[in-house]
Design a protein that fits this description.
By secondary structure, the protein is mostly helical. About 55% of the residues lie in helices and about 0% in strands.
């Protein structure tokens, strides 16, 4: 899976739920909420005041991209 800032969080979690650890690291503990699953990486990072590019890099490393 190739992750970008426009990738939907639900799609990431559907691909591999173990990726949730990277969201928990940024304080996003509401991963089961339907709203959060529909957000993009960019939207979630803006809401949590974190760096979207850093999260994308971690997720792509996790998925082996």
């Amino acid at each position: 899976m190739k992750v970008t800032k426009q990738t939907i969080i639900g799609d990431i979690l559907d691909a591999n739920v173990d990726a949730s650890v990277y969201f928990l690291e940024i304080g996003m503990h509401c991963l089961q909420c339907p709203c959060s699953r529909g957000e993009t990486i960019e939207e979630a990072c803006a809401a949590h005041g974190t760096d979207a590019d850093a999260l994308v890099a971690k997720l792509n490393a996790f998925f082996g991209e």
